[in-house]
């Protein structure tokens, strides 16, 4: 087995020494009983046993405890108008369809019409041309395409590039709220804590461009009743957006919607940090923790 670099070993020692210190502090503070500790071990064992190649119950546990969101926030600092990140979620896949600006990501009948348009910009307000935008969402039944056993092709997901002026646009469907898996030990934990297992409606996006820090984010239409109680703590105030109602047959057909005269419009401004900005703000945040 290859030896780990000395710096990695030092970091691992620091992480585990800190973990053990706080774990012992937790046991002392709660006066944990032997039966309670055994129940915790059995619970974690069941979480691991529930994992399969298609289901990651351990990540789900990290999500509902808010740890995934916290780690993401620590590792993706933002300043000023830069778009905030949020959790990737388990439903991203690389086998997506490449589309041109103005085309659609969802097949007909998957949900109510929505058009998404916006710009990818620098923190100074300049356009970022050629940015790769990956986007995905569930259908109107709250399922992602990968959750269907008869999946034959990617649906409700697509990949496109921003134009020379940083603009982009595509047809989609109105996102809906949906439950995270609740039939396993994590679902039981949520019930015990009197918490629901719902995620508010949202549209995922991952944006990449040469020289810029990759952005993993999502946008949450306002008005969803679960927006204040997201089961995985992914919602951030800056990512809540308004959907405009457009009742105009000409506008609908101009955007390529084949049926109906109305649709929802989501307008976005995506602001990316350069790699240099990201490194600076990440180091700044790390330095501030050293002085606490």
TrEMBL record:
Biological process GO annotation list? catechol-containing compound metabolic process
A single Gene Ontology molecular function, please?
catechol 1,2-dioxygenase activity
Entry keyword Oxidoreductase: yes
* Keywords from the UniProt entry: Dioxygenase, Iron, Metal-binding, Oxidoreductase
| Name recorded for this polypeptide | Intradiol ring-cleavage dioxygenases domain-containing protein
Swiss-Prot/TrEMBL cofactor(s): Fe(3+)
User: Where in the numbering of this chain does the Catechol dioxygenase N-terminal domain appear?
Assistant: 11-82
Tell me the protein family, please: Belongs to the intradiol ring-cleavage dioxygenase family.
Domain Intradiol ring-cleavage dioxygenases residue range list: 89-251
Q: Does the keyword Oxidoreductase apply?
A: yes
Check the record and name the SUPFAM superfamilies matching this protein.
Aromatic compound dioxygenase
From the broadest rank down, the organism's phylogenetic lineage runs:
Eukaryota, Fungi, Dikarya, Basidiomycota, Agaricomycotina
């Amino acid at each position: 087995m290859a030896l780990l670099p000395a710096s990695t070993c030092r970091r691992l020692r620091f992480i585990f020494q800190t973990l053990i210190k706080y774990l012992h502090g937790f046991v002392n503070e709660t006066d944990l009983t032997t039966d309670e500790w055994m129940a915790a071990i059995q619970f974690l064992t069941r979480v691991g046993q529930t994992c399969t190649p298609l289901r990651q119950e351990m990540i789900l546990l990290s999500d509902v405890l808010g740890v995934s969101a916290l780690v993401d926030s620590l590792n993706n600092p933002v300043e000023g108008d830069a778009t905030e990140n949020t959790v990737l979620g388990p439903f991203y896949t690389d086998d997506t369809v490449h589309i041109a600006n103005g085309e659609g990501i969802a097949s007909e009948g998957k949900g109510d019409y929505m058009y998404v348009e916006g710009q990818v910009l620098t923190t100074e307000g300049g356009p970022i041309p050629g940015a790769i935008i990956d986007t995905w969402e569930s259908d109107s039944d709250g399922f992602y395409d990968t959750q269907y056993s008869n999946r034959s092709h990617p649906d409700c997901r697509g990949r496109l590039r921003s134009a020379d002026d940083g603009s982009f646009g595509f047809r989609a469907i109105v996102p809906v709220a949906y439950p995270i898996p609740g039939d396993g030990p994590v679902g039981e934990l949520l019930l015990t804590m009197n918490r629901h297992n719902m995620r508010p409606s949202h549209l995922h996006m991952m944006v990449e461009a040469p020289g810029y820090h990759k952005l993993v984010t999502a946008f949450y239409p306002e008005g969803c009743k679960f927006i204040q109680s997201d089961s995985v703590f992914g919602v951030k105030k800056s990512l809540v957006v308004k959907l405009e109602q457009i009742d105009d047959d000409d506008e609908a057909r101009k955007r390529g919607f084949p049926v109906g005269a109305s649709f929802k419009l989501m307008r976005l401004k995506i602001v990316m940090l350069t790699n240099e900005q990201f490194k600076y703000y990440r180091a700044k945040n790390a330095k501030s923790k050293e002085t606490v």
